[in-house]
């Protein structure tokens, strides 16, 4: 006794039967990652383009950290102790505090780039 076939099974069997040898020649199950730029090729000078971008990003992160800590620290100090309490000064102080907290975490990003994108601080710090 044959059981009735479902629609998906029939379509799948028909698709397999219709595939000729010529169609099978075009099926590619492997990837060549070099075609997509995932493989780093070194230039004639002995460094790769990716390493140069890492160095530039570390320099920019370090500059942002230094200027951010100093600048936001000054704004927080001025708005907290030297200026009158107005809506605008409280708003500016809140912006400076938010940016200051963000800037305090930039050294983790710097370390992550310097270690070639290997996170050293474990799962709890990654969350």
TrEMBL record:
What name does UniProt use for this protein?
G-protein coupled receptors family 1 profile domain-containing protein
Gene Ontology cellular component annotations, sorted alphabetically: plasma membrane
Q: Where is the G-protein coupled receptors family 1 profile domain?
A: 71-127
GO term, biological process aspect, one: positive regulation of cytosolic calcium ion concentration
The protein's matches in PANTHER family, at most eight in alphabetical order, are given as: CHEMOKINE-LIKE RECEPTOR 1 (PTHR24225:SF74), CHEMOTACTIC RECEPTOR (PTHR24225)
| Keywords, comma-separated and alphabetical | Disulfide bond, G-protein coupled receptor, Glycoprotein, Membrane, Receptor, Transducer, Transmembrane, Transmembrane helix
Molecular functions per Gene Ontology: complement receptor activity; G protein-coupled receptor activity
Q: Which family does it belong to?
A: Belongs to the chemokine-like receptor (CMKLR) family.
Q: What residue ranges are annotated as transmembrane?
A: 52-78, 90-114
According to the record, the signal peptide region is: none
Q: How does it sit in the membrane?
A: Multi-pass membrane protein
Subcellular location(s): the record lists: Membrane
């Amino acid at each position: 006794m044959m059981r009735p076939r479902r629609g998906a099974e029939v379509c799948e069997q028909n698709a397999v039967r219709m595939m000729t040898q010529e169609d099978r020649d075009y099926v590619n199950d492997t990837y060549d990652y070099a075609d997509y730029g995932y493989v780093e090729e070194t230039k004639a000078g002995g460094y790769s383009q990716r390493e140069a971008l890492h160095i530039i990003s570390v320099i920019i992160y370090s500059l942002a950290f230094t200027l951010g800590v100093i600048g936001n620290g000054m704004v927080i100090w001025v708005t907290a102790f030297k200026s009158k309490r107005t809506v605008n000064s409280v708003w500016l102080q809140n912006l400076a505090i938010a940016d200051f907290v963000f800037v305090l975490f930039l050294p983790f990003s710097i370390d992550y780039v310097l270690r070639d994108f290997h996170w050293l601080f474990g799962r709890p710090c990654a969350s």
